[in-house]
Each structure stands twice: as C-alpha cells, then as structure tokens.
Amino acid sequence: MTHNENNSQNKQNNLFKAMLDVKIEDFVNSFDRADVFYSKETGIINTGEYGGYREKCLKQLLRLCFGKRYSIGDGYIINAKNERSTQTDIIIYDANNIGAITLDDKLNYYPIEMVYGIGEVKSLVKYSELKEILVKLAKQKMLAKNMTNTNLSDFQKAMKDNYPFSFLVCKKIIGIKKIDDEYWEKIYGDIPAEFRHNCILSLEDGCFLYSIESAKSETKLTVGNTSFFGVPLKNSIIHRDDNKHIYYFISILKDYVENMTGHIFPIAEYLGLTGEETRDGLESFFDENKEVIINNCRTNVINN
Q1: Neighbouring residues of 205: CB distance < 8 A, sequence distance ≥ 6
Q2: Is the pLDDT of residue 27 over 60?
Q3: DSSP track, 204-227
Q4: Alpha-carbon torsion 260, 250, 191, 86, what sign?
Q5: 113 half-sphere exposure, CB direction, 13 A CA radius
Q6: What is the largest CA-CA distance in the chain?
Q7: Residue 220 to residues 58, 126, 234, 253, 266: CA-CA distances in angstroms?
Q8: What's the pLDDT tens digit per position in 40-74?
C-alpha cells in the first residue's frame, strides 16, 4: 500500500470513528436522559418503561454495528429441553434462520440455537447487586449447554467458547474498587468459566473483559472469551478514556458474534419427533430396503 493509500485509509477510519462517536454521544446522553426525564419522581412512566428506554437506546447503537443477518430484540430464550429463561433485556439473534416467536404481540421467544448475544441494561449497579445480575446471565447461557444438533467442529467444542456472548451495560458500578479476581470467584462459585459474563461495560468506570497472557511474554491480548481451551482467563479492565472503553465493548462483541458458528435449528427436537419411534422407523426402513441402498451406494462410489 502506498503512502497516499495509507493516508486515504486513515482518513476513512477517522471518518468512521467520528461518525461512531456522534452515535455514542447520543447513546450516552440518552442513557443520562432516562435518569433525568424518566425518573420515578416525575411520575411520567412506570419502572418497567424507565428501564425500557435505556434498553432502546442501547439497541439503536448496536444496530449500527451489525449487518442485516442479525436482529436485536428482547424477551425469553427457550431450548428443546423445555427450559426457559427469565426476561432478557437484549437478545442478538440470527434473523436469517428463524425469527422471534411472538405471542399476543408482546411476548417474544427465541430458540437458543438462534441466539448469539444476551445482555442486561441497568443504571446504577451496587456492588452487592452484581451477583444477582451476573448469575442470571450465566443461567441464561446454560440453556445452550444441551444443544445436540450443532455445526461445531471438535476444535470448537474444545475451545468451549461458542456460547452466546453475555454482557451487562450500566451507567456506573458503585463500589467498583472492591472488585478483584477473588470477588469474581465468590460470585460464580462452581459455575464453569464458559458460562460467565463475557463483558461488563460501565459507562463511567470502564470495560471489564479478559486477557490472554503468559509469564514468558509481555504480550497481553484483551478478549471477550471467558476461557481458552477450557482454561479460565484472567479478568482485565479497560479504564474509561474518552470512548475507548465503549470501542472495546462494541468491537469485541461484534467480532465474537460474527465468529460464532451458526447452530442448526432442530425443529424436530422442539416438536418431540426424535424419540425411539423415529429411530425404530429408520431401522425398519433400512432392513426392508437393505440391498437397494447398498447397491445405490456402490454405484455412487464408482461413478465418483
């Protein structure tokens, strides 16, 4: 790439960054306005709508960063084992596969195979409230652990990082100085690393992520993965520095989601059509047509 091409690329990058900064400023200001204009004291709206305004602001920002393949909604997550999550503020899902199942024009349900990201949106979060929020996210993530019909390779299964990206976005964490590695262990207890939060974005504090590092190297890689080949990663934080912590949140969320392997939606499992009667039927069909099937297979091998 020539010097002029480099300058052109830098200008394009700066232009995108400038446009994103405008949207981030709108998001942060809108987040603050939810506190000013939609507080309990004004009596304008109820508590649910108060939280809903913040969620709407975040959805608008995230929609700028994802292509048409992904949609952003809210509601409940379900799986083929008849398990269901609690209400989820933000759900990033594959809109090209199957959309949200909406009941009564209000309640949205999403099969876990279609879910790529799950998030909670809060205003001020007390140090003592973090556990409840993060354990809730972990339980939602666990809905994916029983998925059987997937496109995952053995390598990806070993990585243990193809679960939905879970995150919390809040205005501020009160008592943040008390948070350390020991604190996270107390929160999660025996919950495996792969089900823990991928990211916490506190607009006034910074962005909590993870880091891949080695005692033999000074290189430190900040990532959204909670573990690497099953090895839990160390917690890391990008402190607030203009919009840098928000850049990290957006870029790592986007990269993680777009690198996830899409799961197959096993509609037969959801409909209860994969029981013993289905296997028995297939075995009977094979026994009755064994010679024809074997001959067809031989013919295909020879022709190819």
Answers
A1: 172, 173, 176, 239, 240
A2: yes
A3: TTEEEEEEEEETTEEEEEEES-SE
A4: negative
A5: 22
A6: 79
A7: 29, 30, 11, 19, 39
A8: 555 555 444 556 778 888 998 898 888 788 999 99
Decide the pairing of beta strands 231-232 and 172-174: unpaired
Pairing of strands 172-174, 165-170: unpaired
Domain boundaries, the chain: 65-270, 274-304
Pick from 71, 181, 54, 158: nearest CA to 117: 71
Residue 132 or 281, more confident: 132
| Residue labelled with tokens 């608008």 | 60
Tokens of 169: 């976005």
- Residue 63 to residues 56, 58, 60, 68, 120, Cα–Cα distance (Å): 11, 9, 5, 9, 16
Q: Do 133 and 120 meet the contact criterion of CB atoms below 8 Å apart? A: yes
What is this structure's pTM? 0.80
| Residue tagged 């909604």 (tokens) | 73
Provide the H-helix boundaries in the chain. 3-37, 47-63, 130-141, 154-159, 181-188, 244-259, 267-270, 276-288, 290-303
| CA 283 – CA 295 distance, rounded (Å) | 18
Q: Give the pLDDT band of residue 34 (cuts 50, 70, 90).
A: low
